[in-house]
Amino acid sequence: MPIQSDEDALAPYDAVLLLSFGGPEAPEEVMPFLRRVTAGRDIPEERLEEVATHYHHFGGRSPINDQNRALLAALETEIAGRGSAVPVLWGNRNSDPFVTDTLRAARAEGLLRLCVVVTSAYSSYSGCRQYREDLAAATDELGIAAADLVIDKIRPYALHPGFVAVNTEHLVETVEAIPDLDPATTRLLFVTHSVPNAMDDTSGPGDGDGNLYVEQHLRTGRLVAQGLAERTGTSLEHELVFCSRSGSPRTPWLEPDVNDRIEELAAEGVRTVVVAPIGFVSDHMEVVNDLDREAKETADRVDVRFARVPTAGTHPLFVEALVDLVHERAAEARDELVVPAQADGGDVRPSICAGGCCPNLRAAKPALCGRD
Ligand SMILES: CC1=C(CCC(=O)O)c2cc3nc(cc4[nH]c(cc5[nH]c(cc1n2)c(C)c5CCC(=O)O)c(CCC(=O)O)c4C)C(CCC(=O)O)=C3C
Ligand SMILES: [Fe+2]
To answer: Which positions bind Fe-coproporphyrin III (predicted)?
Structure first.
């Protein structure tokens, strides 16, 4: 008997949609991309010109799209290996393939029930709700052509055991490769994207205290540092620092900046920094420029050894974790009892966001995959 679509291991879904930030792939795409990213934002023109030079250092091409092509292929292989025939589609917020075009094409092919995987692990407006707004804007633009689409999303996965495991694995490999490591003069710096303080203050379901963005990073970082100690016997003092601040200098953003902190640590006698960008899922521009170029240069200047830990990328532990999350979401959609996998006993984010969580502080906009 032929296999019916309802018997697919990922039923009721017809496709998985990888949803990401996007990036330029040629010099002439850099400024249009940056204008798209910052439209309606309080970002000074000088900052845009400065960020454009980051892209031009790399030939005008961000690594992010190639990384997503590789992740897409790895997800397809893993999904097929677990007995599902659903394809993986890809859409971006800020560059081709734009998510609106992806949804239009999906609809035309009869792929109506989609499970979204966002390339951001943490709860915040930028990392979660803004992607949900992108989906709402895309379906709105398609109008009647999107009327029969069902779009669900996996939950924020910073505390998923697989995400913790891949970051631990990469940290262990990096630390074991550092010659003559002296833990007493080494600091482990977990790094993430800075955001305005107001964005962190309001991150989370709204009925809590906010600050879920920072809280999740602290929890993930603590587990990863513990994992290092358990696996290698090396305990490193660790802390959370931030990169890639933009916005107006008058607006407070999360600190300390990774560069400032490396300078301070050097003055305190630290000789080696291990820089682990747990806030990102691939080695995109914020990593290869803001950390591997700029923070490395700072470390060189103050004579501190710099070791950077790879991000999750396409490591099998990460790919398996994302596919586990899609299976979990599919079971939830089939009304089965689901016990979400979680690396600690703390707050587990739902796949359907609470009304008003991680709010857009500039304008109220419709968002999918939530109760508002
Ligand atoms: C939390 C967060 C993530 C992680 C979650 C996620 O992954 O979504 C993230 C990822 C990324 N951010 C990226 C690039 C940029 N972010 C900018 C600006 C901003 N980011 C913000 C936050 C975040 N950003 C914020 C609050 C702004 C201010 C303007 C605004 O409120 O929107 C700007 C404008 C110029 C500038 O830097 O000022 C650029 C170019 C790229 C692409 C890299 C590549 O090309 O390889 C990626 C993956
Ligand atoms: Fe950003």
So the answer is: 62, 131
Number of domains in the chain: 2
Known binding positions: 62, 131, 193, 286
Distance between Cα 193 and ligand 2 center (Å): 7
Substitution candidate for ligand 1 out of 18, 33, 37 with most atoms within 8 A of CB? 37
The reply to whether the predicted model has a pTM over 0.80 is: yes
How many angstroms is it from 95 CA to the middle of ligand 1? 13
Q: Which domain holds residue 272?
A: 161-308
The answer to whether position 101 is within a domain reads: yes
Q: Residue 346 domain-assigned?
A: no
Q: Mark whether 151 and 185 lie in a shared domain.
A: no
Does 256 map to a domain?
Answer: yes
Question: In terms of domains, do 167 and 217 share one?
Answer: yes
Ligand 1 midpoint to CA 270 (Å): 30
Do residues 224 and 150 share a domain?
no
Alpha-helix runs per DSSP H in the chain: 30-38, 45-57, 64-81, 99-108, 130-142, 161-176, 197-201, 212-232, 258-267, 285-288, 296-301, 316-333
**Confidence band of 236 (pLDDT split at 50, 70, 90):** very high
Instruction: Please tell me the residue having the least CA distance from ligand 1 atom 36.
Output: 246
Q: What is the DSSP letter of 33?
A: H
Gap between the Cα atoms of 100 and 356, Å rounded: 24
Q: What angle do CA 143, 149, 152 make, to 5 degrees?
A: 125
**215 and 323 in a common domain:** no
